Amino acid sequence: MKKKIDFIYKLLTCILIVSASKMTAQVGLFTPNPSHPLQIDAAKDNGATSDATKLSNDVVVTSDGKLGVGLLNPVTKVDFRSPDNEGIIGVGTNTQTPAAAGAGAIRYNSGGFLDYSDGEQWISLPLAPPTKALVNASKSSVESIPNNTVTYIDGWTETVDLGGDFNNDDTFTAPRDGFYLVSFSITLANGNIPKNTFIETAIESSRLTNNIPIYKTVNSYPAFQSGAVSNYISGNCNAIFNLKKDDTIKFSVKHNIGSARNTLNDGKLNNLSISEL
For residue 167, how many other CB atoms are within 10 A of its CB? Predict the structure, then answer.
């Protein structure tokens, strides 16, 4: 008889446990109103109502498998961005091979660096941020600019190129995503300028979306009612470009003087600059 009673007791206990596990959608430890499948209030201070300060000592696991430490609604797989400004991660040393740790793993090494694995080797992260791109160049050589034709300007002489990003004397390649301030000036040699002449200077980007694909300025010489004159003509433009890594910038000129005209052989009047912001 006693054995039967013990069996019935154990059976009822199991039924209650199973039933409770099925009925309970959320588990809260030290908190009466859990907001996720699992919520732990380490300081036991949530009470009936909680705020960001009280939640800064909570740990939650969401229904889609996100872990939040110090915040109620994590938006990444692991989210530590709590309002107490203590959302830092301590990374320890590791003796695994980079292949065993897998690509994307991070460790601290005894030399005082953070390493990351690309799946084949441990690579130390730099201690200082990369040098921002800065280019200054001028053009003293003569280049013929045909009439009414877009002509890309090359033959630039670099005076500054901190990142080595201005290639082939005519093209800048963005080293990383970001905003770049670009300036371009060009002057054509002295000669006859007919009525209603224009010179168009342009900075052209390879990125066509979320950016200025091409920025142009147009200068007119002289007014339509004026007679023809003889003089230099020049143009310049400045713009800020939103570039992605490996996007390019080139510089062009177009005019309608009526015949080809050379660039002036004076580097002080033909120049460009590019600054990463």
Answer: 11
Pairing of strands 229-243, 248-255: unpaired
List pLDDT tens digits, range 139-183. 999 999 999 999 999 999 999 999 899 986 799 999 999 999 999
| Tally of domains in the chain | 3
Q: Among 73, 103, 126, give the residue marking a domain's end.
A: 126
Cα 91 to its chain centre, rounded Å, is 25
What pTM, to 2 d.p., does this model score? 0.60
CATH code at position 227: 2.60.120.40
pLDDT tens digits, residue range 76-132? Answer: 999 988 888 888 888 899 889 999 999 999 999 887 889 999 999 999 887 788 889
CA-closest candidate to residue 59, choices 78, 76, 85: 78
- Of 108, 126, 144, at which residue does a domain stop? 126
Same domain, 78 and 200: no
DSSP state of 7: H
The residue among 156, 190, 192 whose CA lies nearest residue 264 is 190
